[in-house]
Amino acid sequence: MSEEPRAVVLLSGGVDSTTTLALAASEGYHLYALTFRYGQRHEHEAEAARRVAEHFQVARHVILPIDLRTFGGSALTDDLPVPKGRSLQRMHQDIPITYVPARNTIFLSFALGWAEVLNSSDIFIGVNAVDYSGYPDCRPEYVKAYERMANLATRAAVQDRRKLTIHTPLIHLSKPEIIRRGLALGVDYSLTTSCYDPSFDGLACGQCDACTLRRNGFAEAGVADPTRYQSDTAP
User: Fold this and answer.
1) For residue 234, what pLDDT is reported?
2) Is position 211 within any domain?
């Protein structure tokens, strides 16, 4: 019997990456989860990723420290206010200040290196081009371009003829479709977090773009959002 293939899964601890991990598991991959502590203000997401990785009993979970605060340029890595109270229409009009310059390119590069060491031909990333906040590195054309580059850049592809595939199973799904897909796979979304600007004890703000997309997604999917919001505890 052939050995099950290995896959590197980028895992932030949010709805999309957790659903992506569940989909990779359902396809029979040995899971190697990769999470980054990159100086983000919502660093609690690394703890959520740890919970998710433990729940799925991944073969290995690496939480890698890199400090993108050195460069700044984003409300997630710099002393800039996180946008609050924006409508869905407004989110799609421009690239918001929560965009972290070249983040997915950086993350995929680490995933590519680990995949080559693992003799893996598969990387999973939960990017989405439907319910997203205008980030350019979440688009299908970006992922395809990176995949082409990756297959020019590694010994595995050039010498061993082992071509890499970057899987984006959620890229054309809406947030409610993603949530329904995850629930069908038994995902426990209470393990996840989405907020860009949580309180010190991890309560979601309920006002940032990520909270808005999450709340609307659960509402449209017709299921309760298990997130603990700051407004839920207000007197």
Assistant:
1) 46
2) no
